[in-house]
Specification:
The complex is a heterodimer of chains A (527) and B (206). With 527 residues, chain A is an alpha/beta fold. Chain A is built from 16 helices and 21 strands. Chain A is globular. The N terminus of chain A is likely disordered. Chain B is α+β, with helices and mostly antiparallel strands and 206 residues long. Helices cover 23% and strands 11% of the residues of chain B. Chain B is built from 6 helices and 5 strands. Chain B has a 5-stranded mixed beta sheet with strand order 2-1-5-3-4. Chain B is globular and about 40 Å long. The N and C termini of chain B lie far apart (49 Å). Classes of the chains: A alpha/beta (527), B alpha+beta (206). Chains A and B meet through helix 4, helix 9, helix 11, helix 13 and helix 15 of A and helix 1, helix 2 and helix 6 of B.
Chain lengths: 527, 206
Amino acid sequence: MLDRAFVCTQCTVQLARRSLWSKALPFSARRLSSNATANRPARVAIVGSGPAGFYAAARLLSKHDKATVDMYEKLPVPFGLARYGVAPDHPEVKNCEDKFTEVATSPRFNFVGNVDLGNDLPLSALKPHYDAILFAYGASKDKELGIPGEKATRSVHSARAFVGWYNGLPEHRDLDPDLTGEEAVVVGQGNVALDVARILLSDVETLRSTDIADYALEKLSKSKINRVRVVGRRGPLQASFTIKEVRELLQLPSVSFDPIAKDVFPPESVINALPRAQKRLMQLLAKGSANDPKTSPKSWSLDFLLSPDSLHWSPIHPYHLTHAKFSRNELDPSDPYNPTSKVTPKYLSSGKPAMVNLPASVFFRSVGYKSLPLPGLEDLGIQFDTQRGVISNDGFGRVKSLSGSGEPQKLPDGSTITHLPGLYCAGWVKRGPTGVIASTMTDAFTTADTIIQDLVSHTSSGSLLHAPRDSTGLGWDGVKEEAERRGLRPTSWKDWQRIDAVERERGLQKGKVRDKFGRVEDMLQVL
Amino acid sequence: MTLWREFGLQLRRALPKATAGDMCLAQSRRYVSHSATPWRTGEVANTHRWGLGTHKGLRPSSQGWKTAQRCFSASAQVAHGHITPPKPGEEINVTFIDKDGTEVKLQVAEGDNLLDVAQANDLEMEGACGGSCACSTCHIIVDEPDMFDKMEEPSDDENDMLDLAFGLTETSRLGCQVIMSKDLDGLVVRLPTMTRNLQASDFEQK
């Protein structure tokens, strides 16, 4: 490997043009960035290798010609939710990996996989060697409902675990979901809930050529599920799924859709006055599916205004989930069609709460993801906002100091905050677990621009995290020793390319795009 | 890994340069990402200076040059977004206005889509899904409603993605779905800002 030339990931043709990394900067920015960190590179550590981390890296590398990025990842392999969250039947969404792969060809990019920061290696080991640390580690947990029976290990699953399971995420390799019954209930009405419903209802043959995990394919081919209810606590206008996912489900062959009850659906006059996106979604829901319920072996429905109350098992077969109990809600009568409208419990004329039972042989909760504080954040002075499940930040991505220490800074609205110099966040850990890849990209670009701006304006001190000469500026070279001392086995980008090649090769033999390794040991085995 | 790279390199050496374009169709990828023999980079070094030489194919107008102060990779063999150079006399004019208001005038061939055109010319347009109408990152805004009306109606799939686009307008389209044709000669499109402007409300404790 004499030369790291750029090669198009689409076609392997070498990019015989000005490279991405020397992209023309406006003249002023170019001049400033060259002064920014005196003569040494600006070392940035990115924690997490999902879309947020990679888009931030792309921006940093292309807009700051001295920025060098070390990207840390817990797993031996990169791409986060692009690899383990995007449904296998959405391969086009995973095309963003091509861009990330192109980013990784930069000589100023370095991948450090299989290092679980905060657990295997303390964050404090990183700090002396970097000028900036960007947290983009996403949301590793999912929200719970807090209802009786939720903790059962059989027949009750988190959608996050189920998604991880069919996508080959090592953490959920052994989930073993119960698909022996006919009725599935999914609580939550976001796109993850619809992904779960679609995977349960899809003809397994259509999934066979995707990168879905083998064991999942095997299990799904024996699934008896023929009815999926996707239940939300509010109404159609408050649901958070997007139209593409709804359309896909409505177009699934041999799957019918129960028309939505009139009493929860906005009247036509309201629909016509809605903004474009909501209007189109409501019109699509009103139109429903063309598939006849009589001839369709499977069906699904969207059930609104129901809050989960409890789960119930058969008195005879204690492992046999029979139904989920829900309490009915009603929308704020003064403003029922506002997307932010709240609900209140509905009561019967007797004064008792209105309840309803939905048959369920398997139950998925899908009410959102949740970020957790990385162990050791407090050592860097970072306070995690447990309420919102994000790292407190100023919206641009600078980590806010809640204790008041750090550099005070004036905001556009006139108020003053203090932020922790050199510490940033992007993606779901910055703004909460919502939005599609495009929104994460926009958000990661914002943070990256902020980092560049700070690097450029800190010309005197050179480093953000440290006073002059305090940072070694070594980056991974400085951290490596400590990692080795702890017996870690970091994976490089070349290691990933090897794993990638083997996975594709294995896939080829099975007629699949890729056959993922389901266990970390197996990934490391091929290196 | 070594084995794969070796295989890739041998494949590269075995293929004459002229057929390299055909490799675009092959889905083999990634394994040849580091080649020891940079391909035509020498030529590029010369053509990438501002205002140097005359470019065949895609060419920014002189006005674009003056105002933009950017460089454009241009000659047919170096342009990359998998676009075809227009035949002489069959050029279609298209103008991109980037988020700074800079106009970039290009001449493109029939059949190319705006995402490929933009990427081939180093305009700041992302195509996260690789131009398969599965994201909204190549959102563009058609400047004139008349021109918008001349285009084919966006499909349901495109509209579904546009619904998620930031700063959606009446004349929004996805760049990957706009295929250039003679009818669209003189098309002017704007690139919406990629990063949003922060509002005071962003700083409120939520």
